[in-house]
Amino acid sequence: MPNCDYDLFVIGVGSGGVRAARMSAQYGAQVATAEDRYMGGTCVNVGCVPKKLFVYASHFAEEYHHAEGFGWGPAAPAFNWQVLLANKNQEIKRLNGIYQGLLDDAGVTHFDGRARLVDSHHVSINGRVVSTRKILIATGSWPSVPEFPGCEHVITSNEAFFLQTLPKRSLVVGGGYIAVEFAGIFKGMGVDSHLSYRGPLFLRNFDQDVKEVVRDELDKKGVQLHFDSVVEKIEKLPDESLIVYFTDGSKIETDLVMYATGRKPSVNDIGLENVNVDCRSNGAIIVDDEFRTSEPSIFALGDVIDKIQLTPVAIAEAMAFASTQFKDEPRIMDYDGIPTAVFCQPNIGSVGVTQSQAEESYDEIEVFRSTFRPMKHTLSGSDEKNLMKIIVDKATDRVVGVHMVGSEAGEIIQGIAIAYKAGVTKSIFDSTIGIHPTTAEEFVTMREPAA
Known about the structure:
Elements: E1 6-11, H1 15-26, E2 31-35, H2 41-46, H3 48-67, H4 81-105, E3 109-112, E4 115-119, E5 122-125, E6 128-137, E7 141-143, H5 157-160, E8 169-173, H6 177-188, E9 192-196, H7 208-220, E10 224-226, E11 231-236, E12 242-246, E13 251-254, E14 256-259, E15 263-265, E16 298-300, H8 311-326, E17 340-342, E18 348-352, H9 355-361, E19 365-372, H10 377-380, E20 386-393, E21 398-405, H11 409-421, H12 426-431
Parallel strand pairs: 1-2, 1-6, 2-3, 6-16, 8-9, 8-14, 9-10
Antiparallel strand pairs: 4-5, 5-6, 7-15, 11-12, 12-13, 17-18, 18-21, 19-20, 20-21
């Protein structure tokens, strides 16, 4: 199309949208963006960043207790939720400015307001219509709450980051990353914390050993776990407390119910009805290997395509998109070997396949497993256990899965993920000298398979 206002218009300025916009601009494209809610998207505002800050905050109470075994006197300072909230908000504001600066420095034109597709080459923002050769939808995802009697009384993770007061009692419903993390966050901050999950064990896509160890550790820390548990209804009492009724006849009285039962692609009210863009039943936009939709000039990436809902994945997709479309260097996104972490307490870190997946994919595997009390807790008095696990394809000796539960698991698995992508074998693990004394050295000292 000649005489367009822009070469690319990006709807949504989360991690994926910002990266795609600024890289495309650096490759010579005229780029514009639009956002009606958060500069920086979910991760910066109501996701990864504030959640990790809350995890840090919630862990200090335990650290004070652990310090006594190392000679420090008992200490139990009062926790001030308002101070944490204010400091978190200030940090998010700083990051918002950084994201705005990234767009400005790249020469991207940004519109504050909701963008809607008019047709395959036009977008409206605040009543203004602009033309563009290509459109990228990077609107992310949004928490999903099922409808049931009393559902209006629940909050999601979005609201949890802005609670004016910390509840004395909480119930988190769900079994994924967010649910497990927030159950631990609330407990660490002194809240009577419950977690309800509809299945027999949470974290369904993780390795079975990982799930079982995390279950046991959360139980030790006092998070009250309710499995095979389905909420039937919620009633609000005159004193603002809530009674949660379950389908098995049990009930819990609490002050806050947070639902973390999944996220759906954010595709409402962006004008998809005006273009030929195919979506799955949950609203996820269908794309090809170049992130092109069924409408040739419209692309999508990040959570809105619902492949792997992780911030670094959206950023990598954006890099591949910009390189392919505006640098004339085609790149296909590689979804194999994406590491992940869950910031429950203790943390989970994983890369590669689980044991059950490996058993289905390979003729014969070897499993190396170690469960132990980390050195720190020999004096702290804590009974917290670590899990380290390596899964090997016996025919090739290649390491096909590595899993850990323990302090700083994400930091450790990040390094191992590099080796995984390089095709590391178990013999290379065995020939690597460990750093002593560390938890991580256990990965290079496991010699005898457990299964």
